[in-house]
Design goal:
Keywords: Phosphoprotein. The chain is α/β, with parallel strands linked by helices. The protein has three domains: 123 residues, Response regulator (Rossmann fold), CATH 3.40.50.2300; 160 residues, Hypothetical protein af1432, CATH 1.10.3210; 67 residues, Molybdopterin biosynthesis moea protein, domain 2, CATH 3.90.105. The radius of gyration is 28 Å and the shape is elongated. The longest helix is centred in the first third of the chain and has 43 residues. The protein has 16 helices and twelve strands.
Length: 406
């Protein structure tokens, strides 16, 4: 008895009974009377290693069912079992359902068993490949990332932020084999280890550097690509990294087609750089919109949704009497002699707010506090256009000034 589960779907109850009597002793079989019941079974008992579906069923045909199964469980091997293998439906099944094999009705007991065994072997191969990718390969990449963190913390910081942005986009626009893009994001700054730290810091801070230093920095994607392209299964990742700066309008660079994943990576890197100089992620998004033709529209829309829903924070200046618990400082707080009192990123508690109030009473501090608060989703839509070098005006949100523990 195989330990991998198989789901057989048909609208003919007698046929399902026959299949169960015929193959039930050799395989771990479950049957479903139609597409809706199959989806419910997958929800409760899935995933299944193999799903075999009839083509013509009421309410939901086999193509639609296998397509929806692929969306929910892409590793499940899908087999079509039909007595009506017209050319059009065959093409549609291949394109929409990405089926592994066709079986024609009637099918002998021997042929059906052989097809089920082949499906289980295919599923085992898929699982083995996933273990290789998620285990060995990701482990190796993790080591490379840790080395990058030791050699160039600045570059590592950028890679970490870019990876988070890429994840936000991929949640909204999933792509095939997205592990390759995830790894590319983690290693996108690997070539920066060859760039002197002061040059790298100047570029990330938007400072002017010499033409030679610009050229040196511009080479970092190619250097990273050359470093990793010899690693088995990393050839495509290498290409994604190498072409990370290609605009949307460039179908190829030096005859090499630009991977769709490079489009996502460029968008994430550009947004990260904008975010460093803008008042908030929403304003960084606004500035990026001015050049949105450089990006794939679908990915840009995903970034917009991600920023509005998950990175909708901004910096505002409030008096000490307006800050509340849970707010986070957006800049270091120092006294007049430069001594650090509270660091950027400090989450304010009741006691921290009382300490700040004492500083103000004793004239140790003056002026407003800069804190991070959540923006309203529609603020970015209504925000005025910004120009480089200018800090946009930000409408202040409603602030509850009640102190919970005072």
């Amino acid at each position: 008895m195989s330990n991998q589960k198989i789901l057989f779907v048909d609208d003919d109850e007698k046929l399902l009974g026959g299949i169960m009597r015929q193959q039930g002793d050799e395989f771990d079989l479950t049957t479903a009377l139609g597409g809706e019941e199959a989806l419910q079974l997958i929800e409760r008992q899935g995933p299944f290693a193999v799903v075999v579906s009839d083509m013509r069923m009421p309410a939901m045909n086999g193509i639609e069912l296998l397509k929806r199964i692929r969306e929910r469980s892409p590793d499940t091997v899908r087999i079509m079992f039909t007595g009506f293998a017209e050319l059009d439906s065959t093409i549609e099944a291949i394109n929409e359902g990405h089926i592994f094999r066709f079986l024609a009705k009637p099918c002998s007991e021997k042929d059906l068993a052989a097809a089920l065994k082949a499906g289980l072997r295919q599923h085992a191969l898929i699982e083995a490949e996933r273990e290789l990718v998620e285990g060995t390969l990701h482990g190796s990449v993790k080591v490379l990332s840790e080395v990058l963190a030791l050699v160039s913390p600045l570059a590592f910081g950028q890679s970490t932020r870019v990876r988070a942005i890429v994840d936000g986009i991929l949640k909204r626009v999933p792509i095939e084999d997205q592990w390759q893009l995830e790894i590319a994001a983690m290693l996108s700054s690997l070539g920066c280890v060859t760039v002197p730290t002061d040059v790298l810091e100047a570029i990330f801070d938007g400072a002017t550097v010499s033409a030679d230093e610009e050229k040196q920095f511009a080479k970092h994607p190619k250097l990273a690509a050359d470093l990793i392209k010899t690693i088995p299964r990393m050839e495509y990742v290498s290409k994604i990294i190498q072409l990370q700066n290609a605009d949307h309008g460039m179908p190829s660079v030096d005859g090499v087609p630009v991977p769709i994943e490079s489009r996502v990576l460029k968008l994430a890197i550009d947004f990260d750089l904008k975010e460093r100089f803008c008042e908030s992620p929403l304003h960084a998004l606004n500035e990026l919109r001015e050049n949105r033709r450089a990006y794939e529209p679908e990915f840009f829309a995903a970034l917009e949704d991600y920023v509005k829903r998950e990175r909708n924070f901004k910096h505002v200046k409030l008096s000490v009497h307006e800050v509340v618990q849970g707010m986070v400082l957006a800049e270091d707080i120092r006294n007049q002699s430069g001594t650090l009192l509270m660091s950027k990123g400090h989450r304010l508690t009741g006691s921290a707010i009382r300490l700040l109030e004492n500083y103000y009473k004793k004239k140790i501090l003056s002026g407003p506090l800069k804190v991070i608060v959540r923006s309203e989703p529609d603020e970015v839509e209504n925000a005025p256009p910004t120009t480089a070098g200018q800090t946009p005006e930000i409408p202040l949100p409603y602030v509850d000034v009640t102190f919970a523990d005072s």
